[in-house]
Design brief:
Elements (H helix, E strand, L loop, with lengths): L2 H21 L5 H5 L5 H6 L2 H6 L3 H25 L3 H7 L6 H25 L1
Helix pairs in contact: 1-5, 1-7, 5-6, 5-7
InterPro entries: Chemoreceptor_zinc-bind_dom
Pfam family, one: CZB
Protein name: Chemotaxis protein
């Protein structure tokens, strides 16, 4: 699994949310909220769990990834309900929960990659 590609797809979700807001398009909040519906989630709950489930960084990444998807689904629901100001606020860089969880997933992936590299190169 290419963790960098998975990270890019998660960053693209924010673009999708913003685009849907601008276009007034409905989103499938249930699908967005499914943490096993993306490539990273399938890896985390499958092969990753088998190979890395003992690693504390991995466990935290799984938790943050799940929370990220739930928050993204909450934002999608705001968009679906036409609550665009609330959705914009929920996507704000810095203080928003979405932004914090997105950063946590990104840093978790980076830390996991670093630990796996050390494990397999040492």
């Amino acid at each position: 699994m290419n963790l960098e590609d998975a990270l890019l797809l998660h960053f693209e979700l924010k673009l999708e949310l913003r685009t849907a807001m601008l276009e007034g398009r409905q989103l499938d909040a249930a699908q967005i909220g499914d943490c096993c519906g993306c490539e990273l989630g399938r890896w985390l709950h499958g092969e990753g769990m088998l190979n890395c489930g003992h690693n504390s960084v991995f466990v935290q990444l799984v938790d943050n990834h799940r929370a990220f998807h739930l928050e993204a689904a909450r934002v999608a629901e705001l968009i679906n309900q036409g609550q665009f100001d609330a959705a914009r606020e929920a996507l704000a860089v810095g203080p928003s929960r979405y932004s914090q969880l997105s950063s946590a997933v990104g840093s978790g992936i980076a830390e996991l990659r670093k630990r796996l590299f050390q494990q397999f190169s040492g």
